[in-house]
Specification:
Shape: globular
Order of helices and strands: HEEEHEHEEEHHHEHEHHEHEEE
Oligomer: single chain
Strand content: 25-35%
Strand order of the largest sheet: 8-10-7-11-9-12-13
CATH superfamily of the largest domain: PurM-like C-terminal domain
Largest sheet: 7 strands, mixed
Mean pLDDT: 91
Low-confidence stretches: none
Number of strands: 13
CATH architecture of the largest domain: Alpha-Beta Complex
Length: about 325
Amino acid sequence: MSSSEFDLINSIVRSQSVRRDDVTLGIGDDCALLNVPTGMELAISLDTLVSGRHFSPDAAPELIGHKVLAVNLSDLAAMGAEPAWVTMGLTLPDPDEVWLAGFMRGFSALASIHGVQLVGGDTTSGPLSISLQAHGFVPVGKAIRRGGATPGDLVYVSHKIGDAGLALAMLQGRVAPTVELHMLRQSLESPQPRIELGIALRGVATAAIDLSDGLASDLGHICEQSQCGAEIETHRLPLSAAFDTASDWRLAVTAGDDYELCFTIDPSQQENIAQLSHELDLRLTCIGKMRQQPGIDFISADGSCVSGLRGYDHFPEGGR
């Protein structure tokens, strides 16, 4: 281990703003020592972000730091878990302390909001990529899973979907840029994990998932695990006005990178969801319902139906 690597680690340690009481030993030893509260289960998730795939190589390091934490916290939110700790594997092409300082500013700002402490990890040399493992608490037996939906349940999504995918399509030249691009890029580069919503959905939602690969794929996981299908009304999809001229709803349900929550509820819970939307000041939209027949049908206002849509896949059959 070189001295420059020690310098990077020390920079990361100094940047920490969260110190949790349930961390007996954090960064600085071979392992962290952590305390899981009585009556809680430990929820764990891991995501890897790769330069050129998940973020632009010239993206601001603050935005990368924010996003790498946000996408992991989004997984905890989908399970109704409260964030606690993270570990990080950071691969850098060069020991750039200026870049690292910006990265940690973005990371630490979001970590402070949600009370998350970085408790360990690894640094190494290579093409820029970041792997983060997030740990959170959920009361025993209260985690929201993908397999609890039943036919007749209503399907909801939080906030809006499609903005991140539309921004990426504009940046890649697949869609003509519009004046909304700057606003759309915020969704792509600074997603907001719906932690408060996930916790509030304990005991209310029958199933949930975060929208990382697009509604078509991620709702498909709920359908598969719950052994049922879904009908989605495309005119109900919460889309930005930019979709009126720049693209259509198919991009919104297949592009991914939304990091909103898709969840199902028994129809008797509709009033609770309306109240929750008001309390959180967060749009929660019913977009369809679950059914017995497998698969997902996207039904337009004129009654036309589209099925077989798929979201993002790192390893698609036949390549991309």
